[in-house]
Description:
Elements: E1 9-19, E2 30-41, E3 44-50, H1 51-54, E4 63-74, E5 76-82, H2 96-108, H3 114-130, E6 133-139, H4 144-157, E7 161-164, E8 166-167, H5 180-194, E9 200-206, H6 214-226, E10 231-236, H7 240-249, H8 256-262, E11 270-274, H9 280-289, E12 292-295, H10 297-303, H11 310-315, E13 319-322, H12 334-347, H13 354-360, H14 363-368, E14 386-389, H15 395-402, H16 407-417, E15 423-428, E16 431-435
Parallel strand pairs: 1-4, 5-6, 6-7, 7-9, 8-9, 9-10, 10-11, 11-12, 12-13
Antiparallel strand pairs: 1-2, 2-3, 4-14, 14-15, 15-16
Bound molecules: guanine (GUN) and zinc ion (ZN).
Zinc ion binds near residues 80, 235, 273 and 325.
InterPro entries: Amidohydro-rel (IPR006680), Guanine_deaminase (IPR014311), Metal-dep_hydrolase_composite (IPR011059), Metal_Hydrolase (IPR032466), Metallo-dep_hydrolases (IPR051607)
Function: Catalyzes the hydrolytic deamination of guanine, producing xanthine and ammonia.
Keywords: Hydrolase, Metal-binding, Zinc
Amino acid sequence: MSTVPPTPVQAYRASLLHFHADPAFSLDACLWHEDGLLIVAGGIVQAAGDYARLFPTLPAGAQVTDYRGKVIMPGFIDTHLHFPQTDMIASPAPGLLPWLETYTFPTERQFGDPAHAREVADFFLDELLRCGTTTAMVYCTVHRESVDAFFEASEARNLRMAAGKVLMDRNCPEFLRDTAESGARDSEDLIKKWHNKGRAMYAITPRFAPTSTEAQLQLTGELAAAYPDTFIQTHVSENADECSWVKSLFPEARSYLDVYDHYGLMRERAMFGHCIWLDERDFARMAETGSAAAICPTSNFFLGSGLFDFEKADAARVSLSLATDVGAGTSFSMLQTMNEAYKVARLKGSYLPAARMFYLATLGAARSMQLEGTIGSFVAGAEADFIVLDPKATPLLARRTERCNNLEELLFALALLGDDRCIRATFAAGRKVHECAGAMTL
Ligand code: GUN
Ligand code: ZN
């Protein structure tokens, strides 16, 4: 008679931070355990709470890793970025449209080559993990090979990632065009191949309204209706010139966002990048349809696109999250993204507390993707994607965080001064997938 060996239990002692609500709308949204314990088995969170309460519940033989002095929180979720743009990050151009013409399209051309696509996908995912990002919503290129390469690289690391083939059948170089029919067919094949395979999730990806014909948007909407648990991702209202262009291409539409609405592309699991120039009716429609906004501050500053209006979005109760938008975004780090998001809010005359920024990069993003309970928090049963943050990662951070009087000040210092150097270790489904060079497991 054979007995099944028990699943090994791993526990991690540190300060624990996660959320069960949005700090903008709830006074006790934050769950903080100064001396905490996170218990994981089989890649799943078993419990998270005070060390003194949970330690006695550990089974004999459970391994405890001591990360005292560090903060453990759910891995960051980046809801909008482009893996093929990794090698062209920090390329100068006066605004979105010339940047696309000069750098983006020629760079994306190379991703029909599966070996090139895989090499870049491997680097990209390792860079995300180094920065503490464990889930992302990722644009590939128009080539189906780029999607296979991305998901193969993600599967090799057992990561929960959403990605999709860019749909683009006009207003771009001939070498990057699909057709309405081939784009829909390729996307459907890729959905069947990858969606919900392991931790992979498919995102139907019309690049933005100007690069799709009405026929393509129509078929894309039909695909989104046929596969309602897939994601949809696109860009909307990023840049003033882009908005005028959309107006001239779709004169019947009430607004830029209305173009997507018309074709059935607003629904739960639809993620709209930027959302800078939306009006109140647009924001109301976002909330009504369960669509979500990916706020991309480093990209918006870099391209001079504009400032996201947190107050207007919050008034409509739109689901919000933060995103890097690499390669227009200038950093893979969600901490650096928070730093810039804070300044966007200030320039708009509003205020973004640090607790809210960490919420937006974890549970807020999970909610925007309809993945609450799966990622983004330490609720029992969630997948054990988490990071170990070092509040003393740099000499300056050490000096500043020593002088913090409360949690908000600590999180604020981490958001404003932190970057990849703060990520001591990253775990995906309970397995360590990154450890800071030079860091020792205590
Ligand atoms: N709009 C259409 N394509 C893109 C892109 O690749 N990056 C950004 N920032 N905006 C876009
Ligand atoms: Zn983008």
